[in-house]
């Protein structure tokens, strides 16, 4: 059965004109239920993670300042959200959702997180709407519990996974692969294990050609026993914060390829949704929904 982490709706008001579409986290599970892709039993509600799991990745002082809401103003502005207890609680629950989804993936082959993909969170700071790095926390969680040894993080968001790269910079047990817009945020890139920077307006054909050449070779070389997939849909040409030129069908083919490779090779995969900032919320929901439709089609 496909297991999907769902989360409390974030109700803390964002400033007028804020560009982050928080409503997608409410609309996406409703769409999946409405169309029959998923049923209520597919969803689970995570709780709070053991703080040791967060501290295995994040700096203790940073974590304490977040929980006590004493993070300095400049650091808070860089995150992009107005800080509140509700937000910090929710971000911890999201990380727990990815941890639990990773364990479900070991059992069922795949599991999902409606939220997550918070790859701009560094070990000691947050930025770009990211506070805790959920897939980094879950990767370390699997290793600490001896459920996985070599891990591959496949980050196909339009923005480089700079926080993930920093966290695992000197750790050969986690291979970080980021394929992103070369000239997009973050403008100062970190060094992933493998970075593929794409020129502006890269469309479906070239995007898929590069991915289909790179990923199988990478898996063959690294031999991971677990994969985390950051499946951001901000590669779309309609995305307000992206600069690539992919269509919804191209994005769907991207997800089909990644999930089919994981399935055929028998490598468990956890998917976190990542970014998506098209002007029309229906475009965001359709692109994200495709990932779940494909998971059901390929695995179940």
TrEMBL record:
<comment type="similarity">
    <text>Belongs to the histone deacetylase family.</text>
</comment>
<feature type="domain" description="Histone deacetylase">
    <location>
        <begin position="19"/>
        <end position="280"/>
    </location>
</feature>
<protein>
    <submittedName>
        <fullName>Histone deacetylase</fullName>
    </submittedName>
</protein>
<dbReference type="GO" id="GO:0004407">
    <property type="term" value="F:histone deacetylase activity"/>
</dbReference>
<dbReference type="GO" id="GO:0016787">
    <property type="term" value="F:hydrolase activity"/>
</dbReference>
<dbReference type="InterPro" id="IPR023696">
    <property type="entry name" value="Ureohydrolase_dom_sf"/>
</dbReference>
<dbReference type="InterPro" id="IPR044150">
    <property type="entry name" value="HDAC_classIV"/>
</dbReference>
<dbReference type="InterPro" id="IPR023801">
    <property type="entry name" value="His_deacetylse_dom"/>
</dbReference>
<keyword id="KW-0378">Hydrolase</keyword>
<dbReference type="InterPro" id="IPR000286">
    <property type="entry name" value="HDACs"/>
</dbReference>
<dbReference type="Pfam" id="PF00850">
    <property type="entry name" value="Hist_deacetyl"/>
</dbReference>
<dbReference type="GO" id="GO:0040029">
    <property type="term" value="P:epigenetic regulation of gene expression"/>
</dbReference>
<dbReference type="InterPro" id="IPR037138">
    <property type="entry name" value="His_deacetylse_dom_sf"/>
</dbReference>
